[in-house]
Structures
1.
Amino acid sequence: MKYSKIIGTGSYLPEKVLTNFDLEKIVDTSNDWIVDRTGIHQRHIAAEYETSLSMAEKAARRAMADAGITPADIGMIIIATTTPEKIFPSTACLLQQQLGIGGCPAFDLNSSACAGFMYAFSIADQYIRHGSIKYALVIGSEVMSRILDWTDRTTCVLFGDGAGAVILGQSNEPGVFSTHLHADGTHKDVLYLDSILRKPMAVEEALSIKMSGNQLFKLAVNILGDLFDETLAANSLNKSDVDWLVPHQANIRIIQAMAKKLDLPMERVAITLEEQGNTSSASIPLALDKAIRDGRIKKGETLLLEGFGGGLAWGSALVNY
Ligand code: UT7
């Protein structure tokens, strides 16, 4: 029996930081409102020359160095992004070319939004378990700052830019115990980004996130609670078996509710929200990389990864690190 295992992680954050106090000068908001309602203090914003591709490459090279492998070892590249370099070719194909490799499958998952990393992670896990590839490069990379309406205080204060990468490698020991994916298109209008290809419309209208935050908040708490039950039951484990929660970073109140559901103290939750905001599909690998590199997450510990976003789409993975 073969498993996949996390053997390396890497991340990249743009240098520029935008604080809540900076935002007070742009829209009618306050540091207190943003901190109280979301937990966010600041976010990173990509420079003009930076893209989801350039950030993905930096995160990928760090993850490969961490795993002790070279680009030639990679058997599959998946990039989760709602902000791709081009509509096509995929950002993953462009990255493949920049890494100087060819031949392996490379594709983007750009429709699962903030759940995109969990979808990418699950697909890579299946291929490695099946034995068809040995190493997969799984990335979440986002320039959310380019799809925000900077006059809309209900969305522009929430998001940030960045990239995170994970190398999954084949292993005889688990590894990834299980992954779980779901979607429910009946909630399609709760969070979406329109496309200029659908009908003639202004670029500004098409390229800005629309969100019913309050509705999404309630949906998230319900679906994630059920998702945790499903993930633990599939592995005949109890919540006391989970050492770490590595959640999508949307709102500290959602994360606190999920930690409570698992009876985990907040010290056992990988959080980057305060400094990074919501980086959509990049948020899970960014949080994972941070907690591994600063020594909080240790080898042999059991991690529960979860993400949710537009679709609605949501997913989880239970992992022995
Ligand atoms: O990654 C994708 C997943 N995204 C999420 O999961 C987001 C989930 N939702 C949330 O995180 C929260 O719903 C928000 C942080 C987006 C909003 O918090 P809330 O507690 O649900 O606030 P609300 O939407 O009910 O708005 C409360 C008030 C409103 O004013 P009135 O109508 O009560 O007068 C808003 O207009 O807060 C106002 N408001 C703001 N005030 C200051 C909304 N945005 C802001 C703002 N600054 N930035």
2.
Amino acid sequence: MPVDPVPSIALNFEDARRVVEQQAAQISTPATESVDLLVAAGRVLSDPVFADRNLPPFPRSTRDGYAVHSADLTSLPATLDVIGEIRAGERIENIPKEMLAGQAISIMTGAPVPAGADAVVMVEYTSQHGNRVEIARSVAPGENVVPSGAEAQQGSVLVERGVRLNDAAIALAATAGQSRLQVYDRPRIAVLTTGDEIVSIDAIPGPTQIRNSNSYSLAVQIRNAGGEPVLLPIAPDEPRKLRTLIEEGLKSDLLLMTGGVSMGRYDLVEQVLEELKAEFFFTGAKIQPGRPVVFGKCGAGAPARESTGTYFFGLPGNPVSTMVTFELFARPMLEALAGMAPRTLIFTHAKTKSEIRVKPGLKRFLPAMLSGEFEASQVELVRWQGSGDVAATARANCYIVVPQDRDCIPAGEFVAILSR
Ligand code: AMP
Ligand code: MG
């Protein structure tokens, strides 16, 4: 049955991104499971980690040296009586309850600073002879001591819900004695690649056929973003078979399709989704690569979540377009489905090595190489044949972001970059 053509909704990049973020904000959090701390990195925390004690639990010396009254070091050199030694992990009964004026105590990094002392002098500025220590430098009150609870108070949140667990978050969980963490289930992301010319990587391609690479790059990007890819069979450019596979894909938490969203006679993805009564938020973005990108939601199929429908993206089939549009639009949606707290997209900046010339009207994300050393970085476009050129993109380590209204960026100007 013929359907009306899908009305074209082509947005500026920023508007399209905001539409995705608004939809992502409406997603309810997934189910959770408990995992061992050693395999929790990359998962998204569902139950906050609380501090079971102050951090640090005692006033901690950050240096090897002598715990002192800073007021005793106003005239230098000063000579103080050494009344003992405190090692890291020193038994509490061995730590003096007070320290009188004129007294010092030898102390090690990570050891508790005794009551009465208000600073630690580094050992480098001291020389001990018997029970006397000569000190050549003064210290400010509090110097080289982290007060108990200064890093976190007992009972406070150390790692918030919705945080994707990295090395520091895992270290905090370990500090709080959590050998297991409650995390959100990974969302299942269906990948449906389309095109009569596309063949499986196990097949020997005919002279005009192309091996399916998009499903594999997407699987990597999905895993990196915290999802579980589910690869569907390759869909031909034929409405009935395409429809069956789209319906299958809509049973997942999110459906990513590649190809079939341009203006060609056999680009049927939008038409089939229209038949399935999909809602379209946009059907294009003023970007390159990736201009024909489609974002919407469809109630058909049997959605995995008890929601009103499944979100989908139609990503343009050119391999670089697929990669870029995933990063710009699909990733925030996937992260929301994974339970992550929303975050804005931030570009960093680097100086261009050479002039960049483009036609204005589209925001460009051009494969580029960031190089240099230490603070002296510079970025340069990688020579490429356009959005089908995955070989050039493999040689790139970032994209230069060219604003929509610019046609020329002179060498030496700071440009925004998106890492890859
Ligand atoms: P389309 O978006 O369907 O017009 O496809 C644009 C270009 O991307 C064509 O040259 C396709 O052959 C190519 N292409 C589409 N899907 C894939 C895929 N899964 N792997 C590699 N290339 C693809
Ligand atoms: Mg195609």
